[in-house]
Write a structure and sequence with these properties.
- The chain has one domain.
- With about 210 residues, it is an alpha+beta fold.
- The protein is globular, with a radius of gyration of 23 Å.
- The protein contains three helices and nine strands, in the order αββββββαβββα.
- The strands form two sheets. Strands 2, 3, 4, 6, 7, 8 and 9 form a seven-stranded mixed β-sheet that branches. A two-stranded antiparallel ribbon has the order 1-5.
Length: about 210
């Protein structure tokens, strides 16, 4: 009986050690998210402290991947982890606590990055990807950006401590990142009206001469 209890305890400890890997999904006061023009936030250009005004998604790649070539970079996969703004008065902050990544066990070493976007693009990554794959059309001004890469992140769980992807330690993302402004794409009818206006101005000038 004692032997069975010992085996059961060992199995339990092993399963806890090799459960889903986790990490801390929060940035710091020195790694804030900002916009290249002020948008729903403080005058500094930081993102709004209002929850739901911006969304963030975490992307994962192998530990040998240290950069990204853009949204279509096949090295990176969406982890399924989302975040949004926290209520920090300064703006530019998110704090979603400890998050797990399905399919990756504790102790796995990976690279991570964060992509952020204004809420008008949608609450989930599939909406943003659809927007991107269709030539980034928009009828309102939007914001979108990507963080630097956190390298050699050993996912936590069980006896392994929870890593933070933002911070000043080697491999962490030590700077904030920028959400760039994307202006609306005029509809064809708008171009047509502009053309007619220009033609009318030319005719008017010629008649005055």
């Amino acid at each position: 009986m004692k032997k069975l209890l010992t085996i059961a305890a060992l199995i339990g400890a092993t399963s806890m050690s090799f459960g889903q890997g986790n990490f801390s999904f929060a940035n710091t006061g020195t790694t804030q998210v900002s916009t290249n023009t002020v948008h729903n936030g403080p005058g500094t250009g930081g993102t709004s402290p209002v929850f739901g005004s911006y969304y963030y998604g975490v992307f994962i790649a192998g530990s040998t991947v240290t950069n990204t070539t853009g949204v279509s970079d096949a090295s990176w996969a969406f982890s399924g982890v989302y975040g949004s703004n926290s209520a920090a008065a300064s703006g530019g902050r998110f704090n979603m606590g400890v998050q797990t990544i399905s399919g990756f066990i504790a102790g796995t070493t990976v690279s991570l990055l964060v992509r952020g976007w204004s809420s008008d693009l949608g609450q989930n990554w599939s909406s943003v990807l659809n927007w991107y794959n269709n030539g980034s059309p928009t009828t309102t001004t939007e914001w979108f950006g990507t963080s630097a890469v956190a390298t050699s992140v050993t996912l936590g769980g069980g006896a392994i401590g929870t890593p933070s992807i933002f911070g000043n330690n080697p491999g962490q993302i030590s700077t904030g990142f920028l959400l760039n402004r994307i202006d609306p794409v005029p509809e064809p009818s708008t171009f047509a009206l502009a053309g007619l206006g220009a033609a009318a101005m030319l005719i008017f000038r010629r008649r005055k001469q």
